[in-house]
Amino acid sequence: MPVNPPTADERNSFSRHIPNIITSCRIVIAAAFPFCPESAQLPLILIGLASEFLDGFLARLYNWSSYLGQVLDPIADKLFVLSVSVTWIVLGKITLLQWLLFALRDFGVLLIFLVLLTIGRIRSTRSVPARLPSKITTAFQYLLFLAVLTGNVRLVMPLALLTALIGLIATLQYIYLIRRAES
Fold this sequence. Notes:
The protein is built from eight helices and no strands. By secondary structure, the protein is mainly alpha-helical. The chain has helices at 8-15, 18-32, 41-61, 67-91, 96-102, 104-118, 132-149, 153-182. The model has no long low-confidence stretch (mean pLDDT 88).
């Protein structure tokens, strides 16, 4: 029995899922990162960085945004940062203090989530799109990753401090946006 080629609607329907597939790949990389040889870390981080940019870019460019993507993307980001950073703490590439600093925004978002969950407001709160301070925080996290991988240890602490400062601003902005949305 011959197989008919997909129609234009079927192709467009599948295409809408491309950003979520890219985001899901970042989750798979996060899960695999601790088990990969150190020689694979730079390519994996570059793929993670590319996927961080590409999923959102495609979703905005082609209007392929979805609720799943809005939920999945920040989860993938947090898992990727957590996987890389915890692996590097274990390997002695970064200190616990450096990790706490550059993950400040992530801890803040987690705390906001837990508070909303505790007070029963998590369902009434809509997804808050990433704003500029949050995007800059993510960029600095990747810069810190690249500094570690290229051996620029002098840059790690300044990048961790800058990431913490911008991450704090991003966290405060999330709080403001959530409170404004509830009003």
